[in-house]
Amino acid sequence: MNYQDQVRNRYFEWLYNYACKGRINEKTSFRKLFMNLHNTQFDFYIRNDVNRAMDGVNLRYRFGTVINNDEAFDILDEPCSVLEMILALAIRIEEQIMDDPSYGDRTQQWFWGMLSNIGIGMMSDDIYDDKYVNERIYRFLERRYEPNGKGGLFYIRNCDQDLRDVEIWTQVCWYLNTIS
């Protein structure tokens, strides 16, 4: 395996552990789901969602700092993946909006909540259904979910706006307002 592939594999493991370590039983694996999410490009239709893609790409800098490798960002030169976008969004929610030391770090809670709302949070390797997962991912990406966000990243009961027409960051803010 060449050096670039080693960095890519290490990056995937870092993403996986960031989202799973300490939350998922070590006997349960979500690697198939994560690999699918990581191999699927985050395409967006609302202009400002480019910011979510940039957040995902910027995770590569955080990874490069962790492994003390300035070349990591240049090696990881693909477009933002769905996995990167969702994990980066969970980190942003926790670090910039919902940070509360009395609750601890809830990044994984935000991450798994989004996967669950998409409908794929239960897709461990032993029950993984590639066709089902792909349908759910593309339903989210193409904004074919319910107007209230069910099937997307955030579900807001009694929402009077169509979340399919709203940038993801606004969805986050509206959702967090309903739970705080």
Summarize the structure.
This protein has helices at residues 3-20, 31-39, 50-66, 72-75, 82-97, 107-118, 130-141, 168-179. With 180 residues, the protein is mainly α.
SSE map:
Blueprint: H1 3-20, H2 31-39, H3 50-66, H4 72-75, H5 82-97, H6 107-118, H7 130-141, H8 168-179
Helix pairs in contact: 3-5, 5-6
Report on this model:
- Helix 3 packs across helix 5 and helix 5 packs across helix 6.
- Helices cover 56% and strands 0% of the residues.
- With 180 residues, it is mainly α.
- The chain is globular and about 50 Å long.
- The protein has one domain (3-179).
- It starts with a helix and ends with a helix.
Report, as a whole number of angstroms, the end-to-end distance: 48 Å
- Mean pLDDT across the residues is 93
Using only C-alpha atoms, the radius of gyration works out to 16 Å
Estimated helix fraction:
55-70%
Residue fraction in strands: under 5%
Count of folded domains? 1
Number of strands: 0
Shape: globular
Query: How large is the count of helical segments?
Result: 8
What are the salient characteristics of this protein?
180 residues, mainly alpha, 0% strand
